[in-house]
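testing teh design pipeline on a random one, pls ignore if ur not involved
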């Protein structure tokens, strides 16, 4: 199983509220303003929901 989610900041336009914050089942995603989302790797269970849902494919398994 993959064990880390990578956020490719350059792919995120950083101009909107990240929809993934509400999608994560364990609350591992936070966002400061409209910045790219931050993954709390301690909380993340690598379910892949955020990877599948980002419209810019900015998240991936590392
Ligand atoms: S992989 Fe799942 S648990 Fe991890 S940050 Fe994404 S939505 Fe949350």
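output:
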């Amino acid at each position: 199983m993959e064990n880390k989610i990578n956020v490719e900041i350059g792919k995120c336009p950083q101009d909107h509220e990240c929809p993934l914050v509400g999608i994560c089942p364990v609350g591992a995603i936070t966002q400061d303003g409209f910045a790219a989302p931050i993954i709390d790797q301690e909380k993340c269970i690598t379910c892949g929901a955020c990877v599948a849902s980002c419209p810019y494919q900015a998240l991936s398994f590392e």
